[in-house]
Amino acid sequence: MAIFTLDRMGVVLAFVFGALLWFLGLGIGYFMVLESIVFIVVAALATDFGTAYKKRVGTYQRDRGVRNVLANGLAPLFMAVGFFLSTNYLPMSHANLLFLVGFVGSVAAVTADKFGSEIGVFGGRPVMIFGWRRVRIGTSGGVTLLGLGAGLVASAIMAAPAITVAKFVVASSLPVGYGTLVHGPALWLSMPMLALYASVIAGGFIGNVMDSALGYFEEKGTGNKYTSNFFSSVIGGIVAVGLFWLMAAL
Question: Which of 66, 78, 88, 144 gives 20 to 30 Å between its CA and that of 25?
Fold first, then answer.
């Protein structure tokens, strides 16, 4: 079983992205790199699951390159840049926490899409996300219940480590004694981390669904799998941030 499914140039770019995430993540750079490595490993496992069947139906693709790294990695990298800038130039704003949520949400969306595609092929003939007509396996925009469920599970896997890290981000940026207050940033510290977990899962799942929606337009000649992957990861991050902000404000 291949653990890494990237070609040589893809591996080089992935290492560059990893180094940037380590630097931009400051004290939690290890988490951003770990989250990325977990994605690479679980994506490889999902890719090589049921290889014989995937080759038979024509959906197996192992080697991926620079365009895949860019499509899947740019949105998380943008979120890491936002985390770095907000940590350094917007102290006490907790914007860095929002960018952290966006980072995890975008990675969750990419992972959910990968699981949805690689596991969903075992769910029978898919239906087009718009119109619900039956399409052949591997058609962009086609979805199965198994694929949607696999995407939801993948989002949950990627969201789990973020809870502990988010608590660290908030607590480490509060001055001594500030946690005794009941307003402002202390609210973020006291709010249930279940809200963070739920928002990231939702972001990953919606990002996965959006990838299928964009795949519908791929079939009509607009966009390709790389643009779909990129925009689905962006949407996954934005949805996660928006839901987390909303739940924090309630």
Answer: 66
